[in-house]
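Re: weekly structure request thread

Next one in the queue (659 aa):
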Amino acid sequence: MGSGRRSISGLLLLIMVFFSAEGTRGVPSREHYRYLSYAEINGGMKFLAARYSDIIRVYSANKEHNIPSPGLCRGDHSQKQTVPCEVLIAELGVRPIDRSRAQVIIIGSIHGDERLGAQIAFHLIKVLAVKYKQDPWIQRLLNTRRIVIVPMPNPSGYDRSMRYEEVEGELVDPNTDFPIDQSNPSNCMKSTTARIINELFQSSLFRIAVIFHSKKTPAIGYSWGGEGRCSAHAMNATDHPSWTRGRSICTAGYSTADELAMRTLAQHMSTFAGEFGGDSYKVGSLNDPELDSSFPTTMVDWAYAGSFTENMTNCKPTTNGGYPLGYTTYNDVSNRCVSYSVETSRESSPAEKDLGEPRGLYARKESNGNGHIPRNLRLSLMAIDVANPYIFFLTSPGAKVDLTRGGVLRLKWSIGGAFEVAETFIEFEIESTKEKFTTNVQSGGSMWAQNYGRDGYEKRFDVMQGINLMFSGSSSTKWAYSETIRILNYIPLEVQKTGSDMLVRAVAKVDYSWANVTEQTVMASNGSEVVVKSFGAESHLARSRADPHWLKRSLGYEVRGDEFIYSDVVRMRLPPKTLRNSLYGYVLELVLCALIVCFVPPLVLVMVWRKAPAANYVQRHMRRAMRTFSKKDIADEAARLRDQKKATSKVDVSRALLG
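Done, posted below.
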């Protein structure tokens, strides 16, 4: 009895183990984000560059720009600062990088104790690299942009969890170490952090910059251009003494010429990032007391206004061997970047449990892996996307016009990298005659703005794990434009007879209002009226969307403006129109309709009519077959089976005895 119980209990244990294993089979252990050390981040960047060398280049800014190391940092598995600190830069984009590509810079922990920024920047590099071949949206970004990411611009501060950079015994705040609104030339460019960022701007043409901070109310603040841009509007420090700390600053109502572009993008970044821990990002300029900005002028203002504001200083620092005077002399090209200071968290380094998980990249809920890092990855991806507008077909026009359908074309397209669509239409060109025609002009929003608002984004998050915005079936297509046209109505008869190739492309005018355009009608010398446009915006981001004369070049890079954006050209074949292919489709449709009308209703009626009799017939014969077996028949069959079993048992016993 005891052995039986043991065997039963053992069997139950095996069953429990089996089902336990089955329950966890196929469920991978979830990876959680954690804080990485200086050595881990730099080592990870080098590993990613080696593995994804076709899209990532990692280099030492100290060596590239001849900037001295800010001190010693901890190497691998070391508890002491033993190796010279270096700032690694990641340049992402499918190679070779075209010199006219839109450029974006993402900067991590400029303050060393605000460690969250470095984690966001490093994992952004990783997400872009790993998902390049998996996510069509990320693939488009890397194919069409130059993305510069600096996780640790202040490496010695990060390694020591120290806010400032120690420069020859002095603690320098890198965020205010820039040559804007500086009365003393020796008080700027003292830190290696500021010098490296300065070198990056001098050798690039960034359209958008995102700099991560923490330790304040979560907010996305944008530049107001520096004190010199609004000195006439300065207010007394007594108006906001807790905020101004004795400084005279711009009034909250003052805004730059790029206010509309800055605010619109900030609002969408806030919405796309979403909430976490009950906080969503506030939005406003850095002279807004509601954002609790501690400094009147920072790196954000320098990055935006350095090329056109008058209150710039040629720095003459004496630290780190000095800095050449010409390196802070700016042309009208380098510093016209829409810049954001993102306060990610109320704590300088939030708890690791709140950082989130890699699976939460497009998640809205904490239970699905959302956290500080995933939501700021989304924010960064939005900024990268909007650096340059683009338009694309959701359904391919095809390689050939189907004349058997009357030459009807159904087209669907959408717009990314922008928000407001002032005009959009399809343009056709007959290659043989160079004649052009267009569809009706439509207007509305882009793939972002047409679904703008939390409901629109959340619907898309619910159906996507890998934001598949490039395909019509991937999500709601409320943000798409469509057009159905009968192409033969636009083609001259002689071309219909001979056939021709057609070039098809989608066209759009986007975010035109960002450029702050004013129009004035003047009389030309020949007596005709001419409309003259003037543009108030100063940034590359706004002017490139509206001003066809905007062309800025620096060190081989360029930003070129245009009033319209264009999709890739699709070539279609218009075959010669013949009597056969023009009537064939209509005849076929008429025949099919006749067959449906003539044969389908009678078939349906026959099936309905036969259904009930057929069912009754089967059931009636089954009941009749069951009634043929009486109770006596069943009892006799059971007795016969028992007798057969007994006879078989006797034979087996006899064989055993004989054996």
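The chain has 16 helices and 27 strands. Confidence is low (pLDDT under 50) at residues 1-28, 231-249, 451-476.
Next request, please.
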